Amino acid sequence: MERKIMAILAIVSLSLCLIFPIVHFLGKIDAAGYKSGFLLASAAWFIFATLWITSPKNRIKDK
Amino acid sequence: MAGKISTIAARLDQLYEFDREPVSLDKLQSGSKFAGLFAGEHVAATEFVIGAFFVLHGVTARDLVWGLLLGNLLAVLSWTFVCAPIAVRTRLTLYWYLRKIAGPGLTVIYNIANAILYCILAGAMIAVSATAIGLAFNIETPSLSDVFPGSVGWILITIALGAAFTALAILGFEKLSKFAQVCSPWIFIVFIAGALAMLPRLGVQSNFSNFWDVAKSRIWNGIAVPGQDKFGFWHILFFAWFCNLAMHIGLSDLAIFRYAKKWTYGLYTAFGMFPGHMLAWISSGIMVAAVGREMNPGLMAYEAAGLAGVAGLILAGWTTANPTLYRAGLALQVITPNWPRWKVTLAAGTITTVISCFPIVFVKLLNYVAIYGLVLMPIGAVVFAEHWILPKLKIEQYRAEKYQWLINWRALVVWAGTLMICFLLPLHLYFLWLPGYFIALAGYVGLQALKRNET
Question: What span, in angstroms and rounded, lies between the C-alpha atoms of B330 and B6?
Fold first, then answer.
């Protein structure tokens, strides 16, 4: 269950990484806003994706 | 001398012992695994440089798009029709298959050549990532004509980064490889995000209506910067085709495709080629045009995606340098008997770090990629000829294995001879490998046909 939540959060974070530059390209946010948003979404991706791939199911599989 | 080579070959055999046997049917992998593997493998730090260089070489937008489409298609077809069929028939790595064909001695020489080439490639990755660190410390990025390091600051940064990459590789290759899986989709997003964010700076409207006009006039405008050759359609097509020459025509990827259920799995390489070697190269072209055509990957990444872009450039360098250092270390282990894993990785890392100090590995990256593929290509031709052509002509196969030859001298002559002929051909470096491949094929078949069998 926890693994599934981490996977969803990771995918949402990665999607946000793509949404911020699109919104900036459309002129809805400035460059500074885009860069800050992209940085935060990136940090979230690394946290959730790492938790996702190191969650119990994968560890058992590795053995 | 022969005794020494035999000893080294025996050590090499021990290192690769775990994959000596052909892959069994229960170990075969699904197509989606191949798609994922290739998608993650072809977005590296060097993509920041390659796409940008196309802009500096004055390619036009039309030539770029068609060249990349067809060149990458040819690369995918090379994996599908040249590499994958041999892999699924033999289920062996290139190392073991080459050993049957060329003998253990030549396999050692091939391995050492590969280790040197790997170290240079990893050095280029470090140099590209160093431009991102250099930005923070206001250290000048090498110019396009630089061969030697231009400042103490550049040397210190490359050494620091090389030492960090090497230390991480020593601490645990396996765990870091897993972390690299987390990085790869995000690094691809960095390219796309960076390009999208830079489009308004180049004057592209939010409805994309003038994108093609901007692409033709402000990005790929057909004007090469001073000191760079003018590139056209054929340069781009050949570059996209040979960028992974050692892997497809050179048959290094037998190691991967021996796990494929069918030879058609070669088509899954399209998942790596078109995002990595088309979209990422186009993206870095947009980024370099938006920073005034200055070849500075660190600046490009920072301007395009801020601190996340800088992190992306460093991680892209590291995630690709890490397995490259590992492979180089593995290849070097043959000449460093009884050394523990950490010591070999340290040696490979030290060589790589020294190489990375020389900006030529990064400012001449396109030429290096061409040379890398060219040097290993004749071995791919020898293996192809032995596998497909010799049985058709009823010429005895696998003589090195059958008669316990240390070196198949015909294969060595073809390898060296092909490279000598290639360097004498009056062609651009990018176009040499194709005639070279047919010369190697014909040369090897011709030499083997002189004595159709040994008995």
Answer: 18
Helix %, strand %, coil % for chain B, to 5? 75, 0, 25
pLDDT tens per residue across span A6-45: 999 999 999 999 999 999 999 999 999 999 999 999 999 9
| Minimum Cα–Cα distance from B178: chain A residue | A53
% residues pLDDT > 70 (chain B): 93
pLDDT computed for residue B455 by the predictor: 66
Name the burial class of residue B240, with classes exposed (0-12), middle (13-18) and buried (19+) by CB atoms within 10 angstroms of its CB.
buried
> What is d(CA B384, CA A57) in angstroms, rounded to the nearest whole number?
42
Handedness of CA B362, B363, B364, B365 (dihedral sign): positive
Q: Which ipTM score applies to this complex? A: 0.90
pLDDT tens track for B21-64: 788 888 888 888 888 888 877 888 889 899 999 999 999 999 99
Q: Who has greater pLDDT, B318 or B10?
A: B318
Secondary element (H or E) of residue B127: helix B94-136
- Nearest-10 crossing angle of helices B2-15, B94-136: 80
Model confidence, pTM: 0.91
Chain A contact set for B194 (CB, 8 A) = 21
How far CA B7 is from CA of B88, B95, B337, in Å, comes to: 31, 17, 10
Q: What is the pLDDT of residue B22?
A: 81
Which of A11, A16, A24, A25 would you mutate first to test chain B, the one with the most B CBs within 10 A?
A25
Flag if B200 and A27 touch (Cβ within 8 Å). Answer: yes
Q: Is there a contact between A14 and B307 if contact means CB atoms under 8 Å apart?
A: no
SS3 content of chain A, % helix, strand, coil (to 5): 85, 0, 15
Enumerate the residues of chain A whose CB falls inside 8 A of the CB of residue B181: 53
DSSP 8-state secondary structure symbol assigned to residue B410: H
Beta-carbon separation of B197 and A49 below 8 A: no
